[in-house]
Task: inverse folding
């Protein structure tokens, strides 16, 4: 079945970086854009950006430009999201989510990982 | 940047009642709007895309309508498993979400 399996929880200090992985299975990895969405404790959803696993092209939300890097390793069908210069308000659950469109980004997400909790604390 | 405003923040209803949730965009997003459901401790689930198209496997009691700046998600008769938080999302300009509406048991 189609699934996205994310890496485990992380605890980081302010100023550090975190890299979260998302392993896809059950479908053609290169055929669907991958999004990253985060959710701070008790808050709503925040779209961070997407990566095209075929070309490696990316589109980041303006808020995260300069701090986020999305990459992929096609050989192991895994997408990555790295966030640098972490602050306490980056504490959140980070989700990867597959776009519904084949070879096109519709920005709608039909398959989600279970989320990775990132805690930023000194 | 397009801002999505959802109302009400909380909706208190009983099972079997009809739920009507609103999402208003700060500028037109055409029909490029989706609805998601999220339960505590779970990832969101896509319910509706392009304003009125139900995603695969979504029950018919969920329906979406609207275009331009005003959108509605209707749950015709609430089932116990429908009590959750609902988010709208636009794709007209990036993938921003609204702030959410919590549907709670009255």
Result:
């Amino acid at each position: 079945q189609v699934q996205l399996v994310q890496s485990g929880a992380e605890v980081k200090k302010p100023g550090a970086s975190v890299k979260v992985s998302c392993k896809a299975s059950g479908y053609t990895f290169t055929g669907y854009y991958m999004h990253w969405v985060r959710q701070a404790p008790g808050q709503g959803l925040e779209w961070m950006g997407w990566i095209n696993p075929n070309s490696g092209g990316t589109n980041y939300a303006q808020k995260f430009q300069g701090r986020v890097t999305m990459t992929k390793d096609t050989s192991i069908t895994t997408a990555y999201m790295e966030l640098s210069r972490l602050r306490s308000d980056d504490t959140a659950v980070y989700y990867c989510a597959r776009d519904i469109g084949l070879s096109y980004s519709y920005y709608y997400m039909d398959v989600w990982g279970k989320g990775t909790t990132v805690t930023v604390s000194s | 940047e397009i801002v999505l405003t959802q109302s009400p923040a909380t909706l208190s209803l009983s099972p079997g009642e009809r739920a009507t949730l609103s999402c208003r965009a700060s500028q037109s997003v055409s029909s490029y709007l989706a609805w998601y459901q999220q339960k505590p401790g779970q990832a969101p689930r896509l319910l509706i895309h392009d304003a009125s198209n139900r995603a695969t496997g979504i029950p018919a009691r969920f329906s979406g309508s609207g275009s331009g700046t005003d959108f509605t998600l209707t749950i015709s008769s609430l089932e116990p498993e429908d009590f959750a938080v609902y988010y709208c999302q636009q794709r007209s300009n990036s993938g921003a979400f609204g702030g959410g509406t919590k549907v709670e048991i009255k």
